[in-house]
Give the backbone structure.
Amino acid sequence: MQLLQQIINGVTIGSFYALVALGYTMVYGVLKLINFAHGDLFMWGAYLGLTGVSLLAGLAGAGQPWMAVPVITGVLALIALTGVLVERVAYRPLRAAGRLAPIISALGVAFILESIARNVYGARWRTYPTGVAPAGGFVLAGSVRISTMQIAVLVISFLLMAGLYLFVQRTRVGTAMRAVSLDHTVSRLMGIDVDRIIALVFVIGPGLGGIAGVVVALYYGSFDFTLGWSFGLKAFIAAILGGIGNIPGAMLGGMFLGLVETLASGYISPQWKDVIAYVILIIILIFRPTGILGERVAAKV
Amino acid sequence: MNLSWLSRFRERPWLWQSGLILFAILLPLPLGDYYRTVAWRTVLYIMLGLSLNLIVGYAGLFQLGHAAFYALGAYTAAILNLQLGIPLFWTFPASILVAALFGFLITRPILHLRGDYLAIVTIAFGEVVRLALVNNIFGITGGANGLSGIARPRLLGLEFRQPIYHYYLVLFFLLITIFAMRRLENSRLGRAWLYVREDETAAEAMGINTTQVKLLAFVLGSGWAGLAGALYAARITVISPDLARFMESVVMFCIVVLGGTGSIPGVFIGALGMVTLPELFRPLKDWRDAWLGVTMVVMMIARPEGLWPSRRVQLELQESEAPHG
Amino acid sequence: MAERALTSEPPLLRVRQLTKQFGGLMAVDHVDFELHPGEILGLIGPNGAGKTTIFNMITGFYSPSTGEITFKEQCIARPAAAGWARLRGEQAPRPHRITQQGIARTFQTIRLFKNLTALENVMAGLHHRTKAGVWQALTRSASQRAEEASIVAEAERWLNFMGLHAYRNELAKNLPYGDQRRLEIARALATRPALLTLDEPAAGLNEQETIALVALIREIRDTGITVLLIEHDMKMVMELCERIVVVDHGRKIAEGTPAEVQRNAAVIEAYLGVEEG
């Protein structure tokens, strides 16, 4: 019984990780860059959502569940715009600069985003107005229950992930995206506008991250500026576990990490749950350096 | 940016070297305690940068969890001092050894990882160390609040209380560090690091045990960071798990890369940019991280190879194979 | 010259039932051959025949799926360890051990240390025969200084031997292509191998350079070093090698003197036919 409850909770958290992990994985796919700024874009989603919801709640007098819809749409647009801007300013000039420079630049963007958030919203914990996150829930069996919020989370993330998967696998633009992740030069020769595809990746990845930011903040109710780093790192681990660059892998890795973490915190110790997540990452990378779903490639000599 | 004056200095190394040492010795005399502390921090971070430079710069390995070893050194000194009453100076060798030992144990299984994957695992290890300290592992790390009440070090009846003593203390160790780094750089081992950084496969084909060579870089670099940690504990007397924060590791990493990977003067410049300047703009304290971030982005776009790259062109480090997932 | 192979000396290198599978692909399929001290053996075959894979197994870069390789009557390659064994440090394959035992190699695509000088490149080959560690580097003891001097001196001898001394302080990437190939050989020789393995050393060289290379390889052999050569340039192989092993689709299809191989019907069909057709 307790196990079932934890699986429900774990899958919910896992779908958050998966949504954020998609942003890491897609950017890595096309640029081979760990986008350290992604966690902070996600965090900005939570903060912008806070502003939006507070504004609407102030106008209407109280928080209402419908407010989530315009707020999520607005946040999606703003974070996607920021993502494109970050790519344009901080990553594109470094595309030919090798591997170290973009990493430093990405860390720099992360610092900037986090610092601005802390100065604008303060270092204290911030809470969403009540009434926006849907209340109530259903008893499944005995003490096992699933809340309306959890159902909403699962439905939203399932739809987003299925949509993304179909987009990447079935459409022309999705095919172009996969081509770019294999080889920029060849893609360009095939007539693909590589810059536009990369820009599109920076619309989708951060966009999903922004949505996740609002949903996570609604789910937990409150958060602070460290959300970007702590949650971002976990999501990043999820992307690695699934084999970075691999879109279904990111979803699977997210679910896996969410489950492991919830079970570890339930059966071992909540204090050590993060340590357990990191140790699993380390062990998997030692034995399967390309993740669970990643292909093993023989070193080219 | 016109940097031709730099190259003129490079042709007469003794000139700027002795000038710099003299400057470093005289520097704190006219300063107040606040600026003496800034100077102390700068020198400490130069040491940390040099220790990481061994790993990132010479051997070309992405270490993004270096702060963990810094913290391990500080905690070793503190625990030995608090629990066993060992005078702080006598804990320094233990700090070095513990950090080096952890460096060995942690990196041995992950050395076959390349590039980004290595970076990720080192981040994860750094977090594991930090969380273990936060969770008061073995009941000796004091949890999230850390440890306090470390006895100030004494030497020949002199208690190291004033910031200026600590400045000279770290300066002394920095000079030793630079001396050692230069000798390592120009040795058989230093060349082996170069070969590994340039082309690991070819180095392997030359009969170089690349695993051993890389491990040695990690162990030496970690031990050195441990010493820096002990020096920190000696000055601040209060330590917390924050020493192992990812942010600290990033600052160290940037010190190495911003100035020019693999170059000793580069580390100086990096530390000035990452540590000294933000301290000097105290009114902007809240915006310190944003300033660092802007510096990092702008620097990388303007000079991706760093301000003062090492004599050897650094492209090979950046060209190093990308793991394809 | 072929008499050498008939002496009673044990073979220097013995490849037995060597097999390498990549997924479902049999890159090398139960190949046997031997290499006798002091000979020049050519390993030829059409593109994708498995030559370089065999080569990488001999030099320790791949481990065989099955089969074994013995060098100086010692086993140097067996199937790789996996899982826990790898964590314990048994990370087979370990090319540096093979080099230390006396097999040196060059690469099909030149892999010099591009941003280091020619001298530093050759000095790399001397690394495994020298000892100075951290402590010697820090104290710069008399023995360490003597060792450094001897490393430089010997590296210079190899540069001289290859006629590259003019490039001593030139960055490797700035050398003309043919000289980069020679520098790679110099670097391999500096490891003082008993067996020198060359992966298409004439690739990209013009005719004169190839002729000079043939003379050079003979000279190397005359200093007592056995040579294993993978090559596409048929003329060069026929002229230089005393014995030739031909592989196709991962299998050995012929072995013998250049004259024998040239008459072999299977070889003509698999290789020469393709080349000329």
